[in-house]
Amino acid sequence: MTTDTSPTVPEEHHGEVERLRAHVCALHTELTRWNLVTWTSGNVSARVPGADLMVIKPSGVSYEDLSPEDMVVCDLDGRVVEGRHKPSSDTAAHAHVYRARPDVGGVAHTHSPYATAWAARGEAIPCAITAMADEFGGDIPVGPFALIGGDDIGRGVVATLDGHRSPAVLMRGHGVFTVGANARAAVKAAVMCEDVAHTIHIARQGGPLHRLPQEHIDALHDRYQNVYGQ
Amino acid sequence: MTTDTSPTVPEEHHGEVERLRAHVCALHTELTRWNLVTWTSGNVSARVPGADLMVIKPSGVSYEDLSPEDMVVCDLDGRVVEGRHKPSSDTAAHAHVYRARPDVGGVAHTHSPYATAWAARGEAIPCAITAMADEFGGDIPVGPFALIGGDDIGRGVVATLDGHRSPAVLMRGHGVFTVGANARAAVKAAVMCEDVAHTIHIARQGGPLHRLPQEHIDALHDRYQNVYGQ
Amino acid sequence: MTTDTSPTVPEEHHGEVERLRAHVCALHTELTRWNLVTWTSGNVSARVPGADLMVIKPSGVSYEDLSPEDMVVCDLDGRVVEGRHKPSSDTAAHAHVYRARPDVGGVAHTHSPYATAWAARGEAIPCAITAMADEFGGDIPVGPFALIGGDDIGRGVVATLDGHRSPAVLMRGHGVFTVGANARAAVKAAVMCEDVAHTIHIARQGGPLHRLPQEHIDALHDRYQNVYGQ
Amino acid sequence: MTTDTSPTVPEEHHGEVERLRAHVCALHTELTRWNLVTWTSGNVSARVPGADLMVIKPSGVSYEDLSPEDMVVCDLDGRVVEGRHKPSSDTAAHAHVYRARPDVGGVAHTHSPYATAWAARGEAIPCAITAMADEFGGDIPVGPFALIGGDDIGRGVVATLDGHRSPAVLMRGHGVFTVGANARAAVKAAVMCEDVAHTIHIARQGGPLHRLPQEHIDALHDRYQNVYGQ
User: Fold this and answer.
1) Digits of tens for pLDDT over chain D (230 positions)?
2) What CA–CA distance (Å, rounded) separates D47 from C65?
3) Contacts of D88 (CB under 8 A, 6+ apart)
4) C-alpha to C-alpha distance for A34 and A36, rounded to whole angstroms
5) In this model, does residue A140 exceed pLDDT 80?
6) Mind telling me how many Å the CA of D224 is from chain C's nearest CA?
7) Where are the transmembrane segments (chains A, B, C, D) (predicted)?
8) Distance between CA atoms of B168 and B187, rounded to whole angstroms?
9) Which of B146, C112, D31, D183 is a plausible cystine mate for C36, CB 3.0–4.6 Å?
10) Position B2 pLDDT exceeds 80
């Protein structure tokens, strides 16, 4: 619920907010489709372009019950601006990322099992296959352990991604946070992160593994980011 | 079928029993959705509030064939009070838990593969990720091996959970029992138990793993139980 | 197609054959539902009660294309009696089992991955969890390597199961054959075989594993075979 | 879009191209059904019989959005002849295979996790189960690491498959390429490649594994290629 002291959604953003409620809601079906989430864990948000606002999943609502109207609009301090639900318990982390990274338009968070296994050990995923070079441009790095609720997770995400091409970070003992130019890109990074976490885990069970040479990683990443797709 | 010497469902509970038949039946679809059960294994029950009764799955009926009318109403000694089927072969265990734990409103049981693998070795799952601290508040403990049919399983579940925050116990050489304030909470615990059993198994395959510091586990568990959700 | 020299389905069995065509066809959806088969691999057959006939899957037809009319009726020497398709390439093995084991009413065969992994190593699955004692009454044994097409596979299945309570055998370097009083029981055994092959594999990856004491296995198996279900 | 300097689809091939657009589009659903692809990765193509043309997936389009009209017709130098999208970024590799191997009518490419894990280590999959002998006639070989975009991948695929019965090659640090007499056969090989990569990986985790004797591999492969199916 909007509280008296909260800002409200300015009228010029009403249409965009409505569109993003539907878009962010729909993107959550990608988390279940790709088996990244269990029960109510995981969440996606999108920045409202041109406003200090974001649209995010409500806390603890089942995936099959999510509707666009359930999405919560928050300001970039994490306060609810519009919505009938409490926002995700990770709202402060998302908000911090948007404040610190104006280039980021979407954030996703999961406890997907293979990526979280690397996070539990605090071990970066080595860039040993071309699909990793394509999407992540190198290893997927590990961020610090941080308790939920305040700015610590968001700070850890931003600090760890600084200087990395990877849009994904493995938060130690916790799970995955990803960023993107928009929410769909952040969700894609979460999907690909679990995929490569899975493949590299299996690969290493069978014997030692070598990272790709840096020049190949650079060439693959450049091509994928600039040539691939429509 | 109700036998002559069995108690019957008192009239004031008819409405609640009907509601719980539908609810318990529907919760079984969560067991299949999250891949916790194979063929006809696994079961869920709910206590009938204010009565010494519970509603439980019939024995050996396929998940896709379950309807609310198939659910069986038993007293808390495990005797059938109402129902056209034999109740789950785990009925005695559920009944014991309800007798011993007035705070428990729901019980679930599965042989989900990763959790059962820890149970087969008789090894507790160490609390090494925040999702485990959230839901289980520490390690998931191991209970004794016990044969099915009498009170041994129920006694083992109750004795093992005593003094633990975990709503889940790994019964040695057998599988998972979970409890909750209601049946949905017990099912959620079964779902999350398999999820963390999976993630921690994978994590440890890649190298040694450290349990989270107790103070962090305490803070995470307190927040999740009291702040998370709507 | 029926050839001139083949026997035909006697008229008194027409109704039962029609019923079994639908039943065997439907049971193949259990193979895909439980992820036991890939592309066109795997097959199920049922004995026609009171006749020296069986109903079996056609060879190399996709699961989503199977209809009751596609099922093939063969005699117990594996010759086609009725059907517009060639029968499964494992027909000789099924036929041998029916000839040698009058108590068997159904046979299933899969290359399900975990069970086939034990078969590839030629290692029996040790009975370390109650679900295995329930269904298999002990270890799941390993049969000899045998080439497809003649009687060798069927002979290996029958010889290996002799003296075992297990309805499943791991044929070395190949996959799983299961038998049952009827086709549904054989399919159930194939489903449970993969389930326990999976769980015991995971369990052993985490450390040594102990088989259940024989007296417990005996008690569990007796109860499950005689008390469980409706 | 057809460019001015590109060849166009000759009128006598219009019907076949239209049929192949639908067929190739539909085959992509097999990649998702068998969990071989993640997000937009993976692709299938078919040669247009009697023409120096192929039909291939567009680059970076989601699987659930693919329609027959989205497929792209290219010549065997990889230039777009007809289509509203850019073709797959692997088009040059497919085109090279068609130029070098007149017997090949279809090509598939995936990053399926188990097969890619073997590729990441650069290790051939040993032929230790009958399903592998059937489909691959021996080990699945490893090809060289090659950067995407030019002829290197296609050359590596062709050179590695030369002298092998296997229709699949594990491209080092990358993923799987398969060939077939038609596109469906290439897709089947990709599905079976992941299946055996999975099973053999699991098998070897539990202990040493022995390849089947060559004479058995030969007999199995001969039978499967010449007797199996309708």
Assistant:
1) 444 555 799 999 999 999 999 999 999 999 999 999 999 999 999 999 999 999 999 999 999 999 999 999 999 999 999 999 999 999 999 999 999 999 999 999 999 999 999 999 999 999 999 999 999 999 999 999 999 888 999 999 999 999 999 999 999 999 999 999 999 999 999 999 999 999 999 999 999 999 999 999 999 999 999 888 88
2) 25
3) D43, D45, D56, D57, D58, D59, D72, D94
4) 6
5) yes
6) 9
7) none
8) 10
9) C112
10) no
Which candidate from C116, C149, C205 shows the least CB-CB separation from D205?
Answer: C205
**For chain A, what is the total number of helices (H) and then of strands (E)?**
7, 8
Rounded to whole angstroms, the Cα distance separating D172 from D114 reads 13
The DSSP bridge pattern shows strands A43-48 and C142-143 to be unpaired
Looking at the partner chain, which of C129, C227, C230 has a beta carbon nearest the beta carbon of B116? C129
Please give the average per-residue pLDDT across B65-87, as a whole number. Answer: 97
Q: Which of D61, D95, D73, D64 is nearest to D21 (CA)?
A: D73
Query: What is the per-residue pLDDT across A83-139, written as a single tens digit (0 to 9) for each?
Result: 999 999 999 999 999 999 999 999 999 999 999 999 999 999 999 999 999 999 999
Report the CATH fold assignment for A13-227.
Answer: L-fuculose-1-phosphate Aldolase (3.40.225)
Please give the C-alpha separations between residue C151 and each of A13, C73, C89, D84, in angstroms, as whole numbers: 75, 19, 12, 56
Contact C152, C172 (CB under 8 A): no
pTM as predicted:
0.96
D173: nearest CA partner in chain A: A129
Residue D68 is classified by DSSP as: G
* The token pair that represents C181 in the structure block: 């009083």
Coil, strand or helix: which one is A53?
strand
Closest CA to B86 of B186, B3, B152: B3
Q: What is the ipTM of this complex?
A: 0.95
Question: Quick check: helix, strand or coil at residue A108?
Answer: strand
Which helix (H) or strand (E) is A110 found in, with range?
A: strand A106-110
pLDDT at B4: 52
Region C180-194: what's the mean pLDDT? 98
Closest approach of C59 to chain D, Cα-based (Å): 5
Judged by CB atoms closer than 8 Å, whether chains meet at A220 and D111 is answered as: no
Cα C100 to Cα A19, C52, D33, distances in angstroms: 68, 12, 39
User: Kind of pairing, strands C53-56 and C72-75?
Assistant: antiparallel
Indicate the length of chain B as a whole number: 230
Task: Work out whether strand D142-143 and strand A72-75 pair parallel, antiparallel, or are unpaired.
Answer: unpaired
CA distance D99 to D77: 8
What is the dihedral sign for C-alpha B190, B192, B194, B196?
Answer: negative
Residue C70 has pLDDT above 70, yes or no: yes
Q: Measured over all CA atoms, what is the biggest interatomic distance in chain A, rounded to whole angstroms?
A: 60
Contacts of C191 in chain B (CB under 8 A): 38-39
Every domain of chain D and the residues it spans: 13-227
CA distance C8 to C52: 11
From the list A199, A209, A220, the residue facing D113 with the nearest CB is A199
What span, in angstroms and rounded, lies between the C-alpha atoms of C4 and A158? 78
Chain B residues lying within 8 Å of C195, measured CB to CB: 38-39, 111, 113
The answer to whether B209 touches B139, Cβ cutoff 8 Å, is no
Q: Could you give the maximum distance between any two Cα atoms of chain C, in Å?
A: 60
